[in-house]
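Subject line: Sequence and fold of a protein, written as structure tokens
Area: Proteins and the way their chains fold up in space.
Start of record: The labelled sequence and token lines come straight after this line.
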Amino acid sequence: MSNNPSLVGQQVNSLREAFGIALTELANTDDKILVMDADVAGGTGTHHFRSAYPERFIQCGIAEQNMISAAAGLAITGFKPFVTTFATFMLRGIEQIRLSVAYSKKCEIRC
């Protein structure tokens, strides 16, 4: 047994891994794509993106509300930020989406 930590959802066929791989492949054709992460890249599959494009991977730590506001600002300037975290941590971030994104009508929201 190894003492090295393992990534959550690292099975090749997991939805999390498929998400990270697809996002990385999409970024191959669009240099405006960024990934903003709330310290969960191993659990969302975005570790693939982080490895391929470290300069376009923004680690925001456990600050989902701030991450949403920063993503809104980046989107207004022409970037295409993909915000990644777990839904349970996003509850307070939803308010930021309402205030920073939807209320200003300057960004497009896609779910």
